[in-house]
Amino acid sequence: MLRLGIDFGTSYSTMCWWNDEKKIAETIRNSHGHEKTPSIVYWGDSENYIGQDAENILIDSMHLPEQEQTDALLRLRKSFKRDLRYNYPVS
């Protein structure tokens, strides 16, 4: 039986799985090889991004004209943990 644990943090999230052979929990690395993933999502026109990729879009958007920055910020979602507490729908 696969056992998975998620520490869904406000800023970063981490996932682990239980290794029955070693009798320990092991951290699952993300696609960038990191143990922690930024808790952020970006909804694009044709593609969505999570974690470090979404954070990179946020950082890159700071160099755009003000209207484009606003558009990028409206497509970003941070701190899902707070919304989960109240079971808000995610759009």
Spatial separation of the terminal alpha carbons: 33 Å
Radius of gyration: 16 Å
The helix content, as a percent range, equals 25-40%
Summing up helix and strand content along with how strands pair, one would put the structural category as alpha+beta
List the secondary-structure elements in sequence, H or E. Answer: EEEEEEHHEH
Q: Number of DSSP strands?
A: 7
What count of helical segments does DSSP give?
3
Largest sheet: 4 strands, antiparallel
**Which regions have little confidence, pLDDT < 50, spanning 5+ residues?**
none
Shape: elongated
Portion of residues in beta strands equals 25-35%
Roughly what is the average pLDDT, rounded to an integer?
85
Quick summary of this structure?
By secondary structure, the protein is an alpha+beta fold. The chain has helices at about 50-60, 65-75, 80-85, and strands at about 5-10, 10-20, 25-30, 35-40, 40-45, 50, 75-80. The mean pLDDT is about 85.
Describe this structure in words.
The chain is an alpha+beta fold. It has helices at residues 51-61, 66-74, 80-85; strands spanning 4-8, 12-19, 24-28, 37-38, 40-43, 48-50, 76-78. The strands form two sheets. Strands 1, 2, 3 and 4 form a four-stranded antiparallel sheet that branches. A three-stranded antiparallel sheet has the order 6-5-7. The longest helix has 11 residues, at 51-61. 8% of the residues are buried. The model has no long low-confidence stretch (mean pLDDT 85).
